[in-house]
Design brief:
2 strands, 15 helices, mainly alpha, Tetracycline Repressor, domain 2, Four Helix Bundle (Hemerythrin (Met), subunit A)
């Protein structure tokens, strides 16, 4: 490397200082962009979009309106991504105390809190406005309720009561309701069946995660059930109850005419297998069995939704 108007790379190629500076700025911009995207939790947003799309498809009474579906997905993506970014803004101090989250952009210091606040607020507001303009008032109401419950009820309650898991399952179960509303402009029985499936699925899923990272959550002061339930009996009981209730509710789409017999049989078999894993975790609690429950939950939901879409009545 030499001083002056240029710099020499290892291979002997001379590069001007402005070129080096421009490359450095480009790298910095890419890093900031990547960190902003990470704030929005793309994998979580993807699952939210899938559930919203399935809600739309199952709710259809006629041919799909692909432009409306696209508007639904764009509005949901913006509002969900913004809400998740704001959640990381509010919980940055908590994240800094946990091993599994301390490398996130805010606790790691790669982004300033104000940047996250402005990014999350702008994205959420844009998503709400977009939904109101292109989908309608009812969809806007469901989307706004999802964001408000997630940010202003569930997030602060995580430090106060283990009931936060039940309360947090409500906004987590609303995206398919938004999809249904976009298809039908009503809140019919089908919308609430979809809500029930997503709500109950989150209980064993979330509790299995909390069981695996109990010490991490305890260190950060997050009062999830496995943290306050020293013996673990309440946690295991809730996992089994959630799995069994999910098995029953997952059969309702066929019983109310939303799906066919193929879905019914598949939902029963998958639900029974999921409940068996949850029951095994209750009788032989261990890190390994909790990890199996978590893995099963990650496989169960997309498989169930795909089967529901495939065998729509």
């Amino acid at each position: 490397m030499k001083n002056g108007a240029g710099a020499r790379l290892d291979g002997g190629l001379a590069v001007s200082a402005p070129t080096v500076m421009a490359a450095s700025i480009a790298r910095e911009r890419r890093r900031v962009l990547a960190d902003l995207v990470a704030l929005a939790k793309p994998r979580v947003v993807l699952m939210i979009l899938v559930t919203a799309a399935v809600g739309y498809y199952v709710g259809l009474a006629g041919a799909p309106d692909y432009a409306r579906l696209l508007h639904l997905l764009v509005g949901t993506l913006l509002a969900a991504g913004g809400s998740l970014a704001l959640n990381q803004y509010w919980e940055r101090d908590v994240d800094a105390r946990m091993e599994r989250t301390r490398a996130r952009p805010l606790p790691d210091g790669r982004l300033a809190p104000l940047e996250a606040l402005l990014f999350g607020s702008a994205l959420t507001a844009l998503g709400l406005v977009y939904t109101a303009v292109f989908i309608g008032g009812l969809a806007l109401g469901v989307t706004a309720a999802t964001a408000a419950l997630y940010l202003f009820v569930y997030t602060p309650l995580k430090l106060r009561t283990p009931l936060c898991t039940l309360i947090g399952a409500v906004p987590g179960a609303l995206p398919p309701v938004t999809g249904w509303v976009a298809a039908r402009e009503d809140l019919g029985v089908g919308a609430w069946v979809l809500f029930g499936i997503l709500f109950l699925w989150q209980l064993p899923h979330t509790l299995a995660i909390a069981r695996l990272y109990r010490d991490d959550y305890a260190r950060a002061g997050v009062r999830l059930l496995p943290v306050v339930d020293a013996e673990g009996s309440s946690t295991e009981r809730q996992i089994v109850t959630g799995c069994l209730a999910l098995l029953v509710v997952s059969l309702l789409p066929t019983l109310i005419g939303l799906a066919g017999a193929v879905y019914f049989v598949g939902a029963f078999l998958m639900g029974a297998a999921f409940a068996a894993l949850g029951t095994w975790q209750a009788f032989v609690p261990s890190t390994g069995s909790a990890r199996r429950v978590l893995l099963a939950s990650l496989l169960y939901l997309p498989a169930l939704l795909a089967l529901l879409a495939f065998d729509k009545a």
